[in-house]
Amino acid sequence: MTSDAVLSIRSVSKTFGARRALDGVSLDVARGEMVALIGPSGSGKSTLLRSIDGLQTIDNGEGFIAAFGDKLQAKGRLTDKVRKSRTRIGFIAQQFNLVGRLSLFTNVALGSLGRIPFVRGLLGQWPKETKLAAMAALHRVGVSDYAGQRANTLSGGQQQRGAIARALVQKAKIILADEPVASLDPVSARKVMEILSELNATDGLTVIVTLHQVDYALRYCKRVVALKAGKKVYDGPSSGLDRAKLIDIYGPEFEDVFWEGAPA
Ligand SMILES: Nc1ncnc2c1ncn2[C@@H]1O[C@H](COP(=O)(O)OP(=O)(O)OP(=O)(O)O)[C@@H](O)[C@H]1O
């Protein structure tokens, strides 16, 4: 692991039945980086993010995943460090991030549950500092006007911003965002990417974001990691992703993965 790496992924493989979703992936991510994880459908992006958050185990073997210097997965098992690292990792999925029947405020305040007793949270007895933190986070991502509204009545973009606010209340140091903009319209998608980018630049949060839209990866992330059939096939500056490399990753149909137009 390099000294400033907050995440170290070594020789990680994951097999589902006969299918190898990840095949010997190694990767270091330094504190404060914003990394786009791209690759064709089924290339292993979600599997890698879910493994980093300890949501699934990797194959038994030499591979491991470490966060903040502690191994959270090794020899195909989660270690006793996984809970601790999870409290410092915010996970944002494509959809269904929030509990629909609860208010946006409550969903965001739930981010503090690692630190306050669960029952108090369930009863809505939030300490004053949690209330203040939740409102500040909602304000930060621009949805404080909707604090009292049930989450399932919010737009997709508002819900994604709520999920980011929850990660802020959680005091996450790493945000893993799994296709956070895939079900949004381009305006809402840009807003969500801008918020992630701003949190990275201003607060120094480490962000790893999987994206189908390669133009978003190029625009918002300095570093891009590409997976293809479970293997890492590119890891470098987004400026180095030229047509030839994109064709290598996605095949001749690569222009389909640009939302707002491929570069000339
Ligand atoms: N729980 C599972 N059981 C069986 N196979 C799985 C499971 N999860 C993932 N896979 C398989 O592993 C491979 C990688 O899937 P993964 O979801 O990580 O890809 P992805 O790159 O995120 O794809 P997409 O861009 O379409 O979301 C796929 O072939 C998928 O079918």
Key traits:
264 residues, Rossmann fold, 2 domains, six-stranded mixed sheet, five-stranded antiparallel sheet, globular, binds adenosine-5'-triphosphate, transport, ATP hydrolysis activity, ATP-binding, nucleotide-binding, translocase
Structure description:
The protein has helices at 45-52, 82-87, 104-109, 118-122, 128-140, 156-169, 186-203, 214-220, 243-250, and strands at 5-16, 19-30, 34-38, 64-67, 70-74, 77-78, 89-92, 174-178, 206-210, 223-228, 231-237. By secondary structure, the chain is of the alpha/beta class. The chain has two domains: 1-88 and 176-253, P-loop containing nucleotide triphosphate hydrolases (Rossmann fold, 3-Layer(aba) Sandwich); 96-172, no CATH class. The strands form two sheets. The protein has a six-stranded mixed beta sheet with strand order 7-8-9-3-10-11, with helices on both faces. Strands 2-1-4-5-6 form a five-stranded antiparallel beta sheet, with helices on one face. β10 (223-228) and β11 (231-237) form a beta hairpin. α5 crosses α6 and α6 packs parallel to α7 (186-203). The radius of gyration is 18 Å and the shape is globular. The relative contact order is 0.17. The structure holds adenosine-5'-triphosphate. The site of adenosine-5'-triphosphate (ATP) has 11 residues, from β2 and α1. Adenosine-5'-triphosphate binds at residues 16, 19, 21, 39, 41-47.
